[in-house]
Amino acid sequence: MELEFTKREVVFTTYLVKLIILAAFPASILIYRSKLLSFQAFLIIKKHQGRREGVAYNRCLHYLDLLFCLSRLRRKNYIEYVNFRSIHRSEFAVQAHKAFFVILILWVGVIYYFSDVNFAEFFLPVEYVGILIMLLFQRAFMFVLKVTIFWPCYGFYAFAVFTFKNRCKCKKKRREPINNDEDL
Amino acid sequence: MGYWTMISRFVNIFVLLGLMISLIFYTMSILISKLALDADELYDEYKRASESTE
Questions:
Q1: Which of A31, A73, A106, A110 is most buried, by the most CB atoms less than 10 A from its CB?
Q2: Does A24 sit within 8 Å of B27, measured CB to CB?
Q3: Can you give the residue ranges of every domain in chain B?
Q4: In this predicted complex, what is the ipTM?
Q5: Contacts (Cβ under 8 Å, ≥6 apart) of A151
Q6: Are residues B8 and A39 in contact, defined by beta-carbon separation less than 8 angstroms?
Q7: CA atoms within 13 Å, Cβ hemisphere of B47
Q8: Alpha-carbon distance A183 to A66, whole Å?
Q9: Do B34 and A17 touch (CB under 8 A)?
Q10: If you average pLDDT over residues A99-128, what whole number do you get?
């Protein structure tokens, strides 16, 4: 009798499966690092870093500087951060995508290779890659979410406006439209 | 900059952190189950299963 898979393949794949799971940690760090440079909010946090005094600076945002932990960006000031961002942003994004696609290809490869035989131990759950995808393409997912929840929210708003519009007793005085041609 | 613009920008960070934390916890839970995989045991089981089907 000849088996489809040798013992060597099975041993190799057990190590590979463990490696794929462990690779999620460095990949998530790489993705986080790329997000530190791409989100506008991190730029704002950096601007308020260092307990600067003045009307323009918010001291509450200083504590959000802790989000720069595990990164060399923590030591940089705003100007250095902006320069670093403009130079390295795309490079960091490419590295994050590379890390993710290596995991994805290995994951799909294991599933495809053992698809004939029911090796349930080697099949990693879909949610694992799903969370990684959501992490990497977060902006796209947030956009889709916004588009999806717009219509229910608008429906509620329209319902509220059209049912309660004329029932308020404290009507404000309507301002006269400004006529700019009057003086001429 | 208005407060709502600020808040909508910062929501992204909280979503990011939430996803990171959920990924780490989920990966830990898979790790616990998958690190105990034994290749010899698996191969014996596979051998037995293929023999019984034939």
A1: A31
A2: yes
A3: 3-53
A4: 0.80
A5: none
A6: no
A7: 10
A8: 58
A9: yes
A10: 85
Query: CA A68, A70, A73 angle in degrees (round to 5)?
Result: 50
Whether residues A3 and B10 touch (CB distance < 8 A) is answered with no
How many C-beta atoms surround the C-beta of residue A100 within 10 A? Answer: 22
Query: Which residue type does B15 have?
Result: V
Whether A183 contacts chain B with CB within 8 A: no
CA proximity to B38, closest of A19, A11, A9? A11
Q: Is the pLDDT of residue A61 over 80?
A: no
Tell me the whole-structure pTM to 2 decimals. Answer: 0.78
| A42 with B35: Cβ contact below 8 A | no
Measured CA to CA, the distance from residue B15 to residue A145 in angstroms comes to 12
Chain-centroid distance, C-alpha B34: 11
- The structure tokens listed for B44 are 């014996």
In order of A163, A167, A178, the CA distances from A171 in angstroms are: 16, 9, 21
**Percent of chain A surpassing pLDDT 90:** 34
What's the CA dihedral at A118, A119, A125, A128 to 10 degrees? -140
Check if A119 contacts B (Cβ < 8 Å). Answer: yes
For residues A131 and B21, the answer to whether their CB atoms sit within 8 Å is no
Q: Please tell me if residue A4 touches chain B, with a CB cutoff of 8 Å.
A: yes
